[in-house]
Specification:
87 residues; flat; two-stranded antiparallel sheet
C-alpha cells in the first residue's frame, strides 16, 4: 500500500503505528462489551477465547479456512499472471 501511494500516486503520509488490530465496543441497556483485538493469529485467538470461553477450536478452524482462501487467491492470481505472460 505504501509503495502504491508513494510511487504510483505521489502521496506521502506520516505513518502511525497502531498497537492493536481493532477494537470492538458494544453497549446496550443490559450489557457492555469493550474488546481490544491484538495483531497475530494466536493473540487473536487468545483474545476471543478470553471473551467467549470455549470458542478456541471454532475460531481456529475459521482462521485456518481464511488462510486457505487467501492461499487459493494467491495461487489463482499467480496462475493468471503466468497465463497472461504466455499469451
Amino acid at each position: 500500500m505504501r509503495k502504491f501511494l508513494e510511487d504510483d500516486l505521489g502521496v506521502y503520509l506520516d505513518w502511525v503505528e497502531v498497537p492493536e488490530a481493532y477494537r470492538l465496543i458494544l453497549t446496550d441497556p443490559d450489557e457492555h462489551l469493550d474488546v481490544t483485538i491484538p495483531y497475530g493469529v494466536e493473540a487473536y485467538i487468545n483474545a476471543v477465547e478470553k471473551e467467549v470461553p470455549g470458542s478456541r477450536e471454532t475460531v481456529t478452524k475459521y482462521l485456518d479456512l481464511c488462510q486457505e482462501v487467501i492461499e487459493g487467491i494467491i495461487y489463482l492470481a499467480s496462475r493468471e499472471a503466468s497465463l497472461t505472460r504466455t499469451c
